[in-house]
Amino acid sequence: MAWLSLGMETDCLHAEALADALLEHGALAVSIEDADAGTPNESPQFGEPGSLTRPGWDRSRVVALTAANTDAARLIAACAEQAGLATSPPYTQEAVAEQDWVRVTQAQFEPIRVSARLWIVPSWHDAPDPEAMVLVLDPGMAFGTGSHPTTRLCLEWLERSVTPGLSVLDYGCGSGILAIASARLGAAEVVGVDIDEQAVIASRSNAERNGVSARFQDSGRELNGQFDLVVANILANPLKVLAPAICGHVRRGGRLALSGILSEQTGDLIAAYAPYLPLHLADTRDGWVCLAGVKP
């Protein structure tokens, strides 16, 4: 079976309404993209919660996947009217052949080499190095598959820092990758917390798949105790707000690593943590940093 891909351009004020209308009229999937992507006018949309006052692009491209026999002109005209557009936008159409979408999606995710001995491998791949320490992790609903620079920075810090018998807290565990890596590296006690219930569920499942022992819980529940190592890969603003709580879980002489921080945010984070724990720049990659320190 073939499908039809329809692409049309509009502004950020109408893009979501047009996408919603297309879905209501039977489109199988709809995406909104930057119409200037790949040009000097491309406008990246990233930031922390609340930092984007007007999400979207002035020139937005709406792409819809529909049945092959769709009357494209009629569909787009009806949806444009429903979205409040004065006229029906020009559109492109392209036939899309039926594919094994699972295989196509899986092909996008290859094993990731973190270091000489540590690999992250999707479950459908064989480990490239049979002697390596392998973390089995599939892309899913929870953040953290090892491909993002901040996750890599934290994994490298853990590999340098974890020794057998230490206790580790993964604050904002996402997929549980940092907690799982800590356990594989020899940590005796590993705990992960996250504000997202789905992340806690995903972390437990991933830990079981990797055959490691770790405890995961919602960050709303009381967490007692202090740890030898604490790692938090979140975002700058939450890290600043959580500074007293995070540092309170680092034992005296224990070590802390923070990431999810852009290079230009380094000074603000060091200043926010100064009353609790001195931080220094431990590593950097692709505009992101890892800050680390020892609790006096």
Q: What strand line-up does the widest sheet have?
A: 10-9-8-11-12-14-13
Helix content: 25-40%
Number of helices: 9
Q: What percent strand? A: 25-35%
Topology order in helix (H) and strand (E) letters = EHEEHEHEEEHEHEHEEHHEHEE
Q: Look at the helices and sheets and give the structural class.
A: alpha/beta
Rounded radius of gyration (Å): 23 Å
The 3D shape can be described as elongated
Mean pLDDT, all residues? 86
Instruction: Tell me how many strands there are.
Output: 14
Protein architecture, described:
With about 300 residues, the protein is of the alpha/beta class. The chain has helices at about 15-25, 70-80, 100-105, 150-160, 175-185, 195-210, 235-240, 245-250, 265-275; strands at about 5-10, 30-35, 60-65, 90-95, 110-115, 120, 135, 165-170, 190-195, 215-220, 225-235, 250-260, 280-285, 290-295. The strands form 3 sheets. A 7-stranded mixed beta sheet has the order 10-9-8-11-12-14-13, with helices on both faces. Strands 2-3-1-4 form a 4-stranded antiparallel beta sheet, with helices on one face. Strand 5 and strand 6 (about 120) form a beta hairpin. Helix 1 packs across helix 2 and helix 4 (about 150-160) runs parallel beside helix 5 (about 175-185). The chain is elongated, with a radius of gyration of 23 Å.
Primary descriptors:
27% helix; elongated; 9 helices; alpha/beta; 296 residues; single chain; seven-stranded mixed β-sheet; 14 strands; four-stranded antiparallel β-sheet
